[in-house]
């Protein structure tokens, strides 16, 4: 998954990523606990620390900054660490049969893939604390109500809808989308003055591109713009 993330980031022809589970039963049910303990307990402390600080085991949702749009198409169960993967996406759609929950709570396993940081940003501190502490399993309607998912669709339409959203995004020039996403991601938690400074800095990088001038120029000339997606 780390390699796939890196390839997507570096591929100039890849504009949007869709993450989903194989088949229709599960987005992912979480880590295999039968092999989890030996990997953690049997590893020297410094190696374990390096694994958790980097994008490798236990942390492949951090350490790789991807400012291209990412869609999670959630089918079936989305539990534990794989709920954290869904939280790392920008847009989350789910099948009406999807189920969610921080079920690692039952086995004294903490959230190590960004859940404690991303879930409050998505669904609010109160909701995040409630689901993380109680480990409650919840359905698609509840996920929609608390703001964890953006859309619910019939299971057979899940990937079709994911592709539809991706195609809509791909029709847009990509520069402004990536700049705005970066400003959002990097600006969260900063004082307003710093966030505004970051936004201005990133906006100014967009000003230097040909594509920025092509959009308004095409509008004035009443023609379809031709973007390079620099």
Automatic annotation (TrEMBL):
InterPro entries: ClpP/crotonase-like_dom_sf, Enoyl-CoA_hydra/iso, Enoyl-CoA_hydra_C. The keyword Lyase applies. Pfam families: ECH_1. Keywords: Lyase. Coiled coil: none annotated. One of its GO terms (biological process) is fatty acid beta-oxidation. One of its GO terms (molecular function) is hydro-lyase activity. Signal peptide: none annotated. Belongs to the enoyl-CoA hydratase/isomerase family. PANTHER family: ENOYL-COA HYDRATASE, MITOCHONDRIAL, ENOYL-COA HYDRATASE-RELATED. This is Enoyl-CoA hydratase/isomerase family protein. It comes from Candidatus Zymogenus saltonus.
């Amino acid at each position: 998954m780390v390699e796939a993330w890196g390839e997507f980031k570096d591929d100039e022809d890849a504009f949007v990523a869709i993450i989903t589970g194989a088949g229709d039963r599960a987005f992912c049910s979480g880590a295999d606990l039968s092999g989890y303990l030996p990997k953690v307990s049997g590893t020297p402390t410094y190696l374990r620390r390096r694994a958790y600080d980097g994008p490798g085991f236990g942390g492949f949702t951090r350490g790789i900054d991807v400012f291209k749009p990412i869609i999670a198409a959630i089918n079936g169960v989305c539990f534990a660490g794989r709920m954290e993967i869904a939280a790392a996406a920008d847009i989350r759609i789910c099948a009406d049969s999807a189920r969610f929950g921080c079920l690692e709570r039952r086995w004294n396993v903490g959230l190590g893939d960004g859940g404690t940081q991303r879930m409050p940003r998505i669904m609010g501190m109160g909701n995040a604390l409630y689901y993380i502490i109680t480990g409650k399993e919840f359905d698609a309607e509840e996920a929609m109500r608390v703001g964890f998912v953006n859309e619910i669709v019939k299971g057979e339409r899940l990937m079709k809808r994911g592709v539809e959203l991706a195609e809509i995004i791909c029709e847009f020039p990509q520069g402004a989308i990536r700049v705005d996403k970066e400003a959002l991601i990097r600006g969260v938690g900063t004082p307003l003055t710093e966030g505004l400074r970051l936004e201005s800095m990133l906006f100014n990088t967009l000003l230097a591109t040909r594509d920025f001038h092509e959009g308004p120029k095409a509008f004035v000339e009443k023609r379809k713009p031709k973007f390079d997606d620099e």
